[in-house]
Amino acid sequence: MKTEIRLAAEMTFFADPDGTDEQFEAFLDEVMEQLNAIGREDVDLAARLPDRYAEFETTVEAADFNIAGAGFMMDLRTALHAAGCNTADWPRFAPSHQHVRELQAA
């Protein structure tokens, strides 16, 4: 039986070479565009640009948290990879920490 499971994936990033807040924001915008492109259109983003922190939230219909989390992380990693591929003159942003947790219904 599938239920709606609310998830949040928290990530902090580093830039190599150093990037600006505007470049990080553009990178996150591209990640969101890539999520939309692969059909994951229900993701919300919260970010702290100076801290290079992003939290991606969504609701997944799945049998359990592990299945929901695995599917979401697969899509998120695909979008992250697509956002960083062959983008000349952009700094490379890569996760330095991540944490996925289940959110309780409001």
Describe this structure in words.
The chain has two helices and four strands. The longest helix has 20 residues, at 65-84. The radius of gyration is 14 Å and the shape is elongated. By secondary structure, the chain is of the alpha+beta class. A four-stranded antiparallel beta sheet has the order 2-3-1-4, covered by helices on one side. 35% of the residues lie in helices and 39% in strands.
Summarize it.
With 106 residues, this protein is an alpha+beta fold. Helix content is 35%, strand content 39%. The chain contains two helices and four strands; from the N terminus they run βαββαβ.
Count of runs of 4 or more consecutive helical residues: 2
- First-residue to last-residue Cα separation: 21 Å
Share in β-strands? 35-45%
Low-confidence stretches: none
Shape: elongated
What's the count of strands?
Answer: 4
Q: Report the helical percentage.
A: 25-40%
Name the strands of the widest sheet in spatial order.
2-3-1-4
Q: From the helix content, strand content and strand pairing, which structural class follows?
A: alpha+beta
State the major sheet: 4 strands, antiparallel
Element-level helix/strand string: EHEEHE
Average pLDDT, rounded to a whole number, is 90
Which value, in Å, is the CA radius of gyration?
14 Å
